[in-house]
Amino acid sequence: MGSVETRKPHAVCVPYPSQGHVTPMMQLAKLLHSRGFHITFVNTEFNHRRLIRSRGPDSVKGLPDFRFETIPEGLPPSDRDATQDVPALCDSTRKNCLAPFLELLFKLNSSPQVPPVTCVISDGVMSFAIKAAEVLGIPEVQFWTASACSFMGYLQFSELLERGIIPFKKARNCLKAPAIIFNTFDEFEHEVLVAIAAKFPRIYTTGPLPLLARHIPDGPSKSIKSSLWKEDTNCIEWLNRREPSSVVYVNYGSVTVMSAQHLKEFAWGLANSKHPFLWIVRPDVVMGDSAVLPDEFFEDIKDRGLMTSWCSQYQVLSHPSVGVFLTHCGWNSTMEAICRGAPVICWPFFADQQTNCRYACTTWGIGMEVDHDVKRENIEFLVKEMMEGDEGKKMKEKALEWKKKAEAATDVGGASYNDFDRFVKEALYHG
């Protein structure tokens, strides 16, 4: 390797091993790569195997200056094509990942094939990376892949503890890092970001990352993907045959599970709305069972409904035929909806999703929430109101307003564009 290559800054990126966390970390890694960084992207061994199954062995070959490495997550071996149990995974990475991650960093630093590691960027849940970076004496930045409003909630740990409400401690762990990145933009969560900055001045708002990523020049890194499931490309052809803004897109993300009864209620609510829909149903979406629906349902929807196991969500949301997004309100999905100007029907599951749902339905004015008991009549009503009603029209207009503001934030000279520049110069080059 030439002397110029060895002087490249080298960022090691460590996502939490769930699709909604891997995707934004990959977007961030590609942005840094486009700014001249050598990238090492660290997957767990479980997710490494899933990538190979979903996209083939070439998917993890990388490039000379964008490489993939693995560390064990500490859970029993499994070949399931599903997200691992979240509490068990969080606990296992916290207890078991520091030693193998340190070993990996030492290996990278002793290799003549790559530049020395100059910084570590880890998901806010993967706090072991803070300690590892301290050992090496290099900057460590936490990437909070959930919303800033949820982060602010977690910061109120002591007050919530007194009230008997005990959230995760991960936000507290983030505060040990010298800097924190948020996948949001200032105007979207302004009040919360001001409050966080008062407690922790070194924050960077660099979102929405899918829009910031449009500045990445065409090159080999564009071909690097991060989907842990095999994507069905036929759904785009199906969308091509639909009228503009006519389709309900339904996706509960990579972790949400439900009862078989809830699945049936969603199914008949969608069917009874009489609107076309594209429904992503993971094989593991029903708790302890397979996702089975009656034959009469499929007979009813055969000309206007498509069900598949996974897709390229951003590509689907970008399609002009999509009119509304029925979502679990994960932050990655919320940001992608904003990027495409899609209003949302919210069915939050856990973590930050209830907070995101509340903001979507009140502060941001782009969403309606599914009743907790999930009845088909309620699903039918919400779909019809979003697609046909006055409230739905207002929310579509509001979503398009937020889209324009997100585009402005990520344009050259916009707030998020400038914050990304500042992040690279201040947090990564100077620590």
Automatic annotation (TrEMBL):
Alphabetical UniProt keywords: Glycosyltransferase, Transferase
GO molecular function: quercetin 3-O-glucosyltransferase activity; quercetin 7-O-glucosyltransferase activity
Family: Belongs to the UDP-glycosyltransferase family.
Entry EC no(s): 2.4.1.-
Annotated Glycosyltransferase N-terminal domain residues: 12-150
Domain of life: Eukaryota
Gene name of the encoded protein: LOC110429446
Protein name, as recorded: Glycosyltransferase
A Pfam family hit: UDPGT
Coiled coil regions in record: none
Source organism of this protein record: Herrania umbratica
